[in-house]
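Appendix B, Record 12. Input sequence as logged:
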Amino acid sequence: MKRNGKMRKRIVTQESVSKYCEWLYGCEKSSGTIKQYRYYLMLFMQYMNGKSVEKRDVIMWKGILRERMAPVTVNSALAAVNGFFSYNAWQDCRTKFLKVSCRVFCPENREIDRDEYERLVKTAYKKGDERMAMLLQTICATGIRVSEVPYITLEAAEMIEDDEDYHREISAEIARHLQKLINLEREQSILVVGLGNSAITADSLGPHVVENLNITRHIIREYGLQSLGKERMHRTSGIIPGVMAQTGMETSEIIQGIVAETKPDVVIAIDALAARSTRRLNRTIQITDTGINPGSGVGNHRVGLTEENLQVKVIGI
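Logged structural output:
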């Protein structure tokens, strides 16, 4: 592409990829789609290695992908880069998708019958893997993909009511699911991060949770378990990092520093959940072991708190 007689360089950068992903979010694309597009665009950026994009480069990259991936997967990658090219007005860089023959029916060797389904579920329960059993039942009952069930959702219709017994039942259910995600057979050091702004009611869940925790790490370190009258206890610590407007720092920067210094076994990040429907307010809790992205629910994209970034297991609530 020429401008004023000069060839304009078309270089893929992390900044341009982030801007495109923000635009996708504004178009109400799903978080799964945005994450997938970002992944393929970063692959393409690494392939280009700072060179200006030309159509022949895209065709060569497509050829490399064909050798390593299934055609459907290659087309997903091409959809990501073609969309990026259109967004940046690089229309001449777009490339054609691979032709994929459409199968009306799923091949028999990829289907399971009722007996096989029941055997899989029973085997999961027999091995004590209740999480896998529940996942199998969810997928087979609804037909959704594995990538569409990254978290556990608990809905408690009466959680808004001032009923201590009901709240205790909810707490016990949350604890039951957390015990499946955290190995409590040995003593653990657990860092609880209360995300959000305590000065804003709708965003104060995380800070309030940390304020009401039983923090034990400092006591065990200084006085030992005997001071608590226990032979065994998990070491809990908490932090309320605030928001960037208050600190001038990314939440991930603060937590990375704390994790590097205190070396917890697991991080539990708690944040207020943005909801499209008022029906979910004060009655929905989600638990995930894939981490959490502060502010993403309102389009304020920040660096995520994930195992990849923190190098420690991260659970989001």
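Residues 1-6 have pLDDT under 50 and may be disordered.
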